[in-house]
Amino acid sequence: MLDLETALAILEAALLDADARLSTTIGDRYEVTTARLWRGQVLVDWEPDAQAGDCLLRPDLLRRLAGLHAQVRIAGEEVLLHAPGRIVAALSSDHAALVRRLGGARRIELALRLRFVGNVYAGGEETYSLIERGRRVPLLRLVADVKVRTPHTASPRTSPAPR
Fold first, then answer.
1. Cα distance between residue 148 and residue 66, in whole Å
2. Is the pLDDT of residue 108 over 50?
3. Phi, psi for residue 60 in degrees, rounded to 5
4. pLDDT by residue (tens digit) across 36-70?
5. Cβ density class 47-80: b for 16+ within 10 Å, e for less
6. Distance CA 145, CA 115 (A)
7. In whole angstroms, what is the distance from residue 54 CA to residue 61 CA?
8. Would you say 89 and 99 are in contact if contact means Cβ atoms under 8 Å apart?
9. 4, 112 in Cβ contact below 8 A?
10. Which of 42, 46, 58, 140 would you call most buried, defined as having the most Cβ atoms within 10 angstroms of its Cβ?
11. 68-78 tens-digit pLDDT
C-alpha cells in the first residue's frame, strides 16, 4: 500500500532519469514545455530550472506541505494534497509572493494529485484556485506527464564506454 514517504521516494527515483512534459494553463493561455529530469534536477533546455514543475517535481516542497499540515489523502495509486493559502505562502518566498499577488492567503488554495503506476511516478496535476464567494475558480493548472527512463529507453551512448 502506498503512503506519502513511499510516494516521495518513488518520485525522487524518477528525478534521477526521466522525461517530463509540462502543460501550464493560466486563464485561456496554454503552454507546453519539455524537461529532462536528471540526477535530482529539472533541466529545461539542458539548464537547471528551480521552478519548473513546481511541487509536482519537488519532493522537498511536498514534504514541506505535509509538515505544514496540508491535507494528505491516499486513494489507490494517487496521493492527493490540499492546502489553504496560509500553507502555500509558508512554502517558500516565491510562493508567498504568489499568494500576495493573487489577493492573500484567504483567497487562494492549492490542490495536488500525484499519479503512480506500480512503483513508478507518472506525474500529476497541480491547481491553484481563487476562492470567490465560496466558489473555487481555477487560476493556474500545471500538469506533468513523467516517463521514467529505463536502461531500454535511455539515450544511446555517443562515445564508447571507458575501459
1. 25
2. yes
3. -65, -40
4. 999 999 999 889 998 888 999 999 999 999 999 99
5. eeeeebbbbbbbbebbebbbeeebebeeeeebbe
6. 9
7. 8
8. yes
9. no
10. 42
11. 999 999 999 99
- Please give the backbone phi and psi of residue 51, each rounded to the nearest 5 degrees, phi first: -115, -20
User: pTM of the full predicted structure?
Assistant: 0.87
∠ CA 122-4-14, rounded to 5°:
35
Average pLDDT estimate for 76-92: 96
Query: All 3 cell numbers of residue 110?
Result: 492549492
* Half-sphere exposure of residue 129: CA atoms within 13 angstroms, side-chain side: 18
The Cα-based distances of 28 to 21, 60, 62, 141 in angstroms read: 19, 30, 27, 11
Sign of the CA dihedral with 50 first, then 130, 114, and 90 last: positive
Give the three cell numbers for residue 152: 531500454
Question: How far is residue 146 from each of residues 16, 51, 87, 100, measured CA to CA in Å?
Answer: 12, 16, 26, 31
Tell me what pLDDT residue 134 has.
Answer: 84
